[in-house]
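Record 1 of the preview.
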Amino acid sequence: GDDWDEEDREAADSADAPGAGSPAQTPLRVFLAAQTAAQLIEMLEDLAERFPDVRAALEARRKLAMGSAEDLARDVRRLIVTTSAEPAWRNEWDGDGSIPDYAPVRDRLELMLRQGYADEVVRLGETLLKAGNEQVEQSHDQGETADEIGACMDVVFRALVQSSLAPSAQILWAIDALLRDNYGLCHGSDIVLNQAHTAEDWSIVADTLAERLRHLPAAAGRADFSRSYARERLSNWAITALQRAGREDEVIPLAEREAELNGAYVRLVTLLVDAGRLTEAEQWIARGIAALGQTQLGTAGQLRDILRNVREQSGDWSRVAAMRADDFFEQPSMLTLVTLRVAAE
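->
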């Protein structure tokens, strides 16, 4: 049975909160301060005997106190493996289920970070992200498992900022994690990416990502969605890095190459419109629609919408009306008829 009451739990959590200032004089702290060293040892041994989680937490602290960070890291890696192997499910009708408890992993990562072992925490993050992705892919819950893993990854990203990695390497680590993350586990990456990094740091990142793009095989046809999506995500980050590095003149040329290689016409056209290069935007819209043909009707439709918006903004109403007429004849409906009449007027 658990003999701790809620007040004791809250007091213990408050006293152990990372980054806290002077500890509050809670009833529990006052009680502990009044005990002798021998009494505290006896109390902790009793708690460790009766509560496995307490014993594990104390053992983790013992290993760090002895300078055995490698031993603790090995234990945490083993804990990640066992926890990520647990089934994750939730019955949405009756609420019954089994959600893996990542609190022991998170607590040990926090402990290692507080003791200055940021690099070790980052290395453990590699294991955690890989195992977490695989577990969430197999889970049948309401997102609880992803939340548990995400809370652990938050600690990893905090460690990344404090690690010995160069700023550009920190940025690349965070981007790589996001590219591997299929389930929203890496929201904590903002703490890394929103740091005041220099243009030089982002320039190194941009060159690295551009080099990867050059060696990444293009999608084998428009139907190869998985490879196409992965390439588009990588190129999005390459463009972001160029922009943050102040290398704006390289953004559109890269987007042009990716449009031809990977069909990312919408992104290119949007960049051209934002830059006020409307004639080029119209040319690329025509090329995009011709290249995509009937294979990607949704993307072709997006390109036509952008073209219509450009013509509306420039006051080219006769051509807008012609496009609305095409829409009506392709998909006759009251909506397309009304929009055609508005454009014609």
